[in-house]
Amino acid sequence: MTRILVVEDDASIRLGLEDTLRAKGYEVDSVGRAADGLAAARAQPPDLIVLDVMLPDGDGFDVCRQIKAARPPLRDVPIIMLTARGAELDRVRGLELGADDYVTKPFSLMELLARVAAVLRRAGREPDALAFGDVHVDFARQRATKAGRPVDLPARAFAILKVFARRPGEVVARDVLLDEAWGYDKMPNTRTVDNHIVKLRRALEDDPEHPRYLQTVHGVGYRLEVDS
């Protein structure tokens, strides 16, 4: 599971980020001080850091500088900085120190989620392939095979499979599938998700009526069972 470290001293913002990121399937650690953020990142480098500029025991710029000066894998961790609205010099300084993106306060949680996903993709933290049973999916080339034979899938099917690839073996709620496979500017309903899952089963399962891999979790969503 993709793990995100949030370093933000404002408790209300920090808790809001925790809840929102966890609801989207991310594992989240959070702290409110610069020293604690550095210690957490050094102890177990996360997949992404969301870092506030203004912290009670220092500033986010120094945290960013120390992380980017460290040895791999810590220095390779992407960073999104949170800055005050209109603080252009802060944004420029953060980017010069190696931050990957910035979000100005106040910000919408949807915007932050979109930037998190984009930074993770650019950092190569997104899955580039998926395999289960005799199915192999290549997301970069948008190609799928079953038992070595090409399977013709629409773009939406690849988007749905990538959501499962981010969470192998985990239950994925229909709302998460809607958010990540359709995007925030689309308004399909959960029946749309169900219909696409039926089509995926027909294309990829040996017995679509009794699926082995694309399993329904009643009242919640779906789970992709991957080979151990």
Describe the protein's architecture and organization.
The chain is α/β, with parallel strands linked by helices and 228 residues long. 40% of the residues lie in helices and 25% in strands. The strands form four sheets. A five-stranded parallel beta sheet has the order 2-1-3-6-7, with helices on both faces. It is elongated, with a radius of gyration of 20 Å.
User: What name is given to the CATH topology of the largest domain?
Assistant: Rossmann fold
- N-to-C SSE series? EHEHEEEHEHEHEEEEHEHHEE
Termini gap = 16 Å
How many structurally independent domains?
2
Number of helices: 8
Largest beta-sheet details: 5 strands, parallel
Proportion of residues in extended strands: 15-25%
The assigned CATH architecture of the largest domain is 3-Layer(aba) Sandwich
Tell me the layout of helices and strands.
Elements: E1 3-7, H1 11-23, E2 27-31, H2 34-43, E3 48-52, E4 54-55, E5 58-59, H3 60-69, E6 79-84, H4 88-96, E7 101-105, H5 109-122, E8 129-132, E9 135-138, E10 143-146, E11 149-151, H6 155-166, E12 171-173, H7 174-182, H8 190-204, E13 214-217, E14 221-224
Parallel strand pairs: 1-2, 1-3, 3-6, 6-7
Antiparallel strand pairs: 4-5, 8-9, 9-10, 10-11, 12-14, 13-14
